Amino acid sequence: MVSPALLHTLPVTERGVRRRNELIDAARIVFERAGYLESRLTDITRQAGCATGSFYTYFNNKEEIFAAVLDRAQEDMLHPGMGRVPGDDVYAALEAANRAYLLAYRRNAKMMALMEQVATIDDGFREQRRRRGRVFIERNAKAIAGLQERGLADPELDPTLASRALSSMVDQVAYSVFVVDRASKVGLEDLVHTVTRIWANGLRMTTPDKPKISADNQEEL
Fold first, then answer.
1. Residue 180 DSSP symbol
2. CB-based contact 201:165 (threshold 8 Å)
3. What span, in angstroms and rounded, lies between the C-alpha atoms of 142 and 115?
4. Are 197 and 95 in contact (CB under 8 A)?
5. Cβ(190)–Cβ(218) below 8 Å
6. How many CB atoms neighbour CB 166 within 10 A?
7. Do residues 24 and 69 lie in contact, with contact meaning Cβ atoms separated by under 8 Å?
8. Domains of the chain, first to last
9. Would the CA dihedral through 136, 138, 139, 141 be positive or negative?
10. CB–CB of 158/69 below 8 Å?
11. Which helix (H) or strand (E) holds 165?
């Protein structure tokens, strides 16, 4: 999902791959601690325990390593590993997918906040953000079209427009809870239940009754 213009040639040796990964891990720590604008390459190399000159073996500049950190975070969100859902319970599968996405967003909330900030001042990262959204919209549109073919979703909906609306809803809710209002006491299962219900209602899917989550059983975000 990262623009090729923001990527340096990848290393071919095991040692090179390991060192590059160490720099990416270090950069994430520095970016999350200091923010993008205040982070310096010397901070990153110091965190990684390597010489500044070694940095340029793998990256050309700060923009490139920031793109690599974002790419790793976005891959985690695109493939969060929701696990297998037994049977053919479409609602349960939707719920599991939303839970996995929200957990991945929480893991990467600081980087998502930085991406939003940097995208307002840098055209390259603005394009990267747009491509990220397009990947999710296209994937979800394909799933909606599949539900329509099976008679499980409103056939009159345009799957791409429906996906854009519903995917944006989940993304904005996640941004609101995990970035804007990090002190929120919203329970994880309540959040999953709410966004899943809105998805299902929006597609006119059958929505089974769900027991109310008690305060004692909530995982606070």
1. I
2. no
3. 26
4. no
5. yes
6. 21
7. yes
8. 4-68 (1.10.10.60), 79-217 (1.10.357.10)
9. positive
10. no
11. helix 159-175
Residues of the chain below pLDDT 50:
1-6, 210-221
The tokens 């969060």 sit on which residue?
Answer: 80
Q: pLDDT, tens digit, for every residue of 73-104?
A: 989 988 876 666 666 789 999 999 999 999 99
CA nearest 69: which of 36, 94, 106?
Answer: 36
Which of 6, 3, 47, 7 lies closest to 25 in space, CA to CA?
A: 47
Q: Phi and psi at residue 2, in whole multiples of 5°? A: -85, 140
- Rounded (5°) CA angle 45-48-53: 35
pTM given for the model: 0.82
Q: Angle CA(15)–CA(18)–CA(24) in degrees, nearest 5?
A: 140
The H or E element that residue 163 is part of is helix 159-175
Cα gap 82→77, rounded to integer Å: 11
Kindly state the DSSP code that residue 220 receives in the 8-state scheme.
Answer: B
Take residue 195 and report the two structure tokens written for it: 């966004």
Helix (H) / strand (E) element for 14: namely helix 14-34
Which residue type occupies 203? L
Q: Which two tokens stand for residue 129?
A: 């953000």
CA gap 218, 221 in Å, rounded: 9
